[in-house]
Specification:
By secondary structure, the protein is an alpha+beta fold. It has 2 domains: 191 residues, no CATH class; 262 residues, L,D-transpeptidase catalytic domain-like (Beta Barrel). Helix content is 32%, strand content 14%. Strands 3, 4, 5, 6, 7, 12, 13, 14, 15, 16 and 17 form an 11-stranded mixed beta sheet that branches. Strands 8-11-9-10 form a 4-stranded antiparallel beta sheet, with no helix packed on it. It has a two-stranded antiparallel sheet with strand order 1-2. α9 packs across α14. The longest helix has 22 residues. The chain is elongated, with a radius of gyration of 30 Å.
Length: 527
């Protein structure tokens, strides 16, 4: 058994015991010396290469699992490199047990539930403390404990930033275009190595958004198990949000059916929105606002072209005439849809557009924040929608009740324009007039079913798409119960020609609704 205490990181050079397994050789004057305290061990442990303890630590690191997620594999590599830079000198262990910083880490692990995590996910060996001088720990046990604690720290950092559900798009639903905001594991291990308070360091890894902390307080205060799971799920969503939401940003909460313009952390404008139907959901994602378009045209999405307009062309093209739809080549050349045999022609080889006008589903203005989801926020000609309590009525885009009010707010911030200037640009500009946004204004399409208001009360919104349920199931480990649903970005399959309905009525999944009703809803009242 090894009895010397020179592994302790705070030991002075004078305390080094010559001839021991951990003896330090003084460097030559012309030899470079590592001074980064996050990497370099103390002088007492700076020359451990070839020692039994260093060899044991090296073996333990080499035995870490080589499979797992990309992040887990990265963490393994980081730990190996971190300890190699320290010449495999322990950071958390002495020969008699844990150091005080290590014990602070372990104590914080026990409080993981305070943060919506589970203490059992961060189990480390139970060993003696550095004060128990009568107990020796062999090199293998020191190495195992050392690596276990460092690995648990990186796991805690990963979970603090949403890594329990490493890819929500795949594991939960394709309409959750979010990813955990994982911290660099190299920075985590190097920074905690030099931290004056390892417990506070771990607490600081969690999201710093004020709403996350408010949800956490409500989570700790509730006695209701179902409410606790709901609050925990909403905390998890915050772990996927950008650290910086933007000094000025647009925040559209789908379950709330509301959009908010936020400046300096304060809501300066709020308005009702319509969101996608359950079968045609509004995708949850973040992109920067690119343009505001006056008198916009509408480019019909592939799903509506294939599932609704192509069958209509095979019948009598009534929807095309009623809604003034136009056909274009892929490079924008106008074409006459009546010149094609649509039983033999694939509509996916063309573009379908609706020009600006009184029938245009975009109304008088749209906000663009391009993504693969082809979702916009825009005006609507169907104002009746905003009187509904549950406003899941569109084909995925966000419809805004008073869009020009939001236009005024955004352009005042971006360009300094007043309402008179905006009115002039709108009136004098041509069709599909794009106003390019100069500032970086993130548009966050979010899914929060719980919000803590200024009074500290929990505002609850219906789980209209089932995302909250999926997150709860995942955090409870019930992966086999999750209804992932279809991939909304998968190629759209055409309707077979022999299944195209003749003019009249047919069942479409909603009682009493005809195919004409469905397409009319898509074009005139539902996009």
């Amino acid at each position: 058994m090894i009895r010397t205490h020179v592994l302790a990181l705070a030991v002075a050079v004078s305390a080094v015991l010559p001839g021991s397994a951990y003896a330090v050789t003084q460097p030559a004057h012309d030899e470079p010396f590592v001074t980064d305290p996050a990497i370099a061990p103390s002088l007492a442990t700076a020359r451990l290469a070839g020692s039994p303890a260093a060899a044991a630590l090296s073996r333990t690191l080499a035995s870490l699992p080589i499979d797992g997620t990309a992040q887990e594999i990265k963490e393994r590599s980081v730990l190996i490199e971190f300890y190699e830079a320290r010449e495999n000198a322990p950071l958390w262990m002495t020969e008699t047990g844990w150091t005080k910083p290590a014990l602070a880490v372990i104590e914080e692990f026990k409080k993981a539930k305070d943060w919506g995590l589970e203490p059992q996910d961060f189990v480390v060996p139970k060993l003696a403390t550095a004060e128990d001088a009568d107990l020796d720990i062999d090199d293998g046990a020191i190495a195992d404990a050392e690596v276990a604690l460092s690995a648990a720290i990186l796991k805690y950092a990963r979970y603090a930033r949403g890594g329990r559900i490493i890819d929500p798009t795949i594991l939960l639903n394709s309409n959750l275009d979010r990813k955990p905001k994982l911290l660099d594991p190299r920075s985590v291990i190097e920074d905690i190595a030099t931290s004056d308070s390892t417990g506070a360091f771990l607490r600081g890894l969690h999201p710093q958004h004020p709403q996350f902390e408010k949800l956490r307080q409500a989570y700790l205060n509730t006695k209701n198990a179902r409410t606790a799971k709901m609050l925990r799920a909403n905390m998890e969503i915050w772990r996927w949000m950008p650290e910086d939401l933007g000094a000025l940003h647009i925040f559209a909460n789908v379950p709330e059916f509301m959009v908010h313009l936020v400046k300096g952390g304060e809501r300066v404008y709020s308005e009702r929105i319509v969101v996608g139907e359950v079968g045609k959901q509004t995708t949850i994602f973040t992109r920067n606002l690119k343009t505001i378009v006056f008198k916009p045209m509408w480019r019909v999405p592939e799903s509506i072209k294939v599932r609704e307009l192509w069958p209509d062309l095979r019948r009598n093209a009534s929807m095309w005439r009623e809604h003034g739809l136009e056909l274009e080549s892929k490079d924008g050349v106008p074409l006459d849809y009546r010149q094609f045999d649509w039983s033999k022609t694939d509509i996916r080889d063309f573009e379908v557009v609706q020009p600006p006008g009184p029938k245009n589903v975009m109304g008088v203005v749209k906000f663009t924040f391009p993504s693969q989801h082809t979702i916009f926020m825009h005006d609507t000609i169907d104002k009746w929608m905003f009187g509904q309590k549950r406003r899941t009525l569109s084909h995925g885009c966000l419809r805004l009740r008073n869009p020009m009010r939001l236009v005024e707010k955004v352009l005042a911030e971006d360009k300094g324009w007043d309402s008179e200037k905006i009115r002039q640009v709108f009136t004098d500009g041509g069709r599909n007039n794009e106003i390019v946004i100069d500032r970086e204004i993130p548009v966050h399409l979010v899914y929060f079913t719980a919000w803590i208001d200024d009074k500290g009360d929990v505002q609850r919104f219906a789980d209209v798409y089932g995302h909250e349920k999926r997150i709860v199931q995942a955090l409870d480990g019930e992966w086999d119960k999750i209804d992932v649903g279809r991939d909304h970005l998968a190629p759209v399959k055409p309707v077979e020609a022999n299944k195209v309905a003749s003019p009249g009525r047919r069942t479409t999944g909603k009682k009493g609704e005809s195919i004409v009703d469905m397409v009319g809803n898509a074009l005139g009242g539902g996009f």
